[in-house]
Amino acid sequence: MPKSIQGYFIRVLFTTCVLFAVSLTSTVSAANANIFSDIYSGWERVSELPGEVNALQESYQQTLEQLNQTSAQLGQAQANVEAFKAQNELLLAQNEKLTDMVSKLQNDQDAKTATAKRIQTMVITAVSLILGYFILIRVMRWGMRRRSGRV
Predict the structure, then answer these.
(1) CA–CA separation, 7 vs 15, rounded Å?
(2) Can you tell me the distance from the alpha carbon of 83 to that of 77, in angstroms, rounded to the nearest whole number?
(3) What pLDDT digit, counting tens, does each position of 58-90 carry?
(4) How far are the Cα atoms of 15, 107, 122, 128 from residue 131, in angstroms, in the given order?
């Protein structure tokens, strides 16, 4: 190789090495800054994770407790509904018995009222007949006395 080509080749190689070294150092320092800030922010995030995990666990426990309470309340409400249904059926049966009893009492009362009216009518009729008999006898006697007194 001629000396000028070698010199040219060495200059190009040297320039390339210098440019590579400059670019490497410039990226290393930028990378170092980014690496440390990334490590720091990553460490902050990692250090915050237990608190977030604890908060999530507490939230989960609260939600679980609320679910248990709601489940218990639902079970109690269902038991109350069943008790109300049973009580309602019992009350309906009692209501039907009472309705039958009231109906029988009403029928008995109607029968007593009808009997009392019949007795009242018979008494009034008997008294009217007796009074009518006495009045008729008095009128007839009066009429006979008048006739016998005139004749």
Answers:
(1) 12
(2) 10
(3) 888 899 899 999 988 998 999 999 999 999 999
(4) 160, 35, 14, 5
